[in-house]
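ARCHIVE CARD
Drawer: 12
Card no.: 0347
Subject: one protein chain, sequence and derived structure
Cross-reference: see card 0346
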Amino acid sequence: MIFVGEGALLRRAVTHAATRGHPVDLVCSADPLDAAAADAPHLAAADVNAHADSLARACTDGIVWSLNNRQIFREPLLRADGLRILNIHNGLLPRHRGLPSVAVLFALLHGDTEYGATAHEVDAGIDTGPVLAEHRFPIGPEDRYHQVMLRGIRACQTLFEQILPAVAAGTAHPVRGAAAEPSAYYGLRALDRLDTYRDHPAYPRATDLGPFAAHAPELTRALNRPPSLRPPGRCSAG
């Protein structure tokens, strides 16, 4: 198995896989310590796609995991023979595609009553591949951004541990099509419309980043942007 991503979520997944006896062939991240628990080779790559041949040669079981990963997989990695790329996404797909840091904010502003994590195959789109499994939890009427984000991270870890055996055994298959539910994409451009929500009753709790302020600089910049620099927009998703 190859792991691509960063942070505590990636490191926990690598550790869990190694302690369960699964091969950890390579860890692609910014921090070499992410590979230490598995005593695995480490690759610091700004663009993992540039190392497609190396990943294909290194992977002994054909499984590539993406966890807390902001890199977008492209060709030739997507068409590398024998590789199955799987992503654990912080959000319910296709309702919460894009950046989890942005999706959580708009989930609260739009009054979503559920959030969670999704395991899906990676294709040429962004969070559009076939869904293999999900782990849902309710959003309470008083829940704040940092609470939902933390539960989302925990759901990602739980989902990875739940689906790992089936993926390793080759028995994890799509459960439904991506068109089964409404789709929305939350990238950085969605933050250009954040100012139109400042009078929304859910705005205070949707923007209460708590300890995640340090990990979501794009939100901090958008929230602190002077009024004169805020782009015009409409109260909508996307």
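Annotation on reverse: The chain has a mean pLDDT of 93. The chain is about 30% helix and 15% strand.
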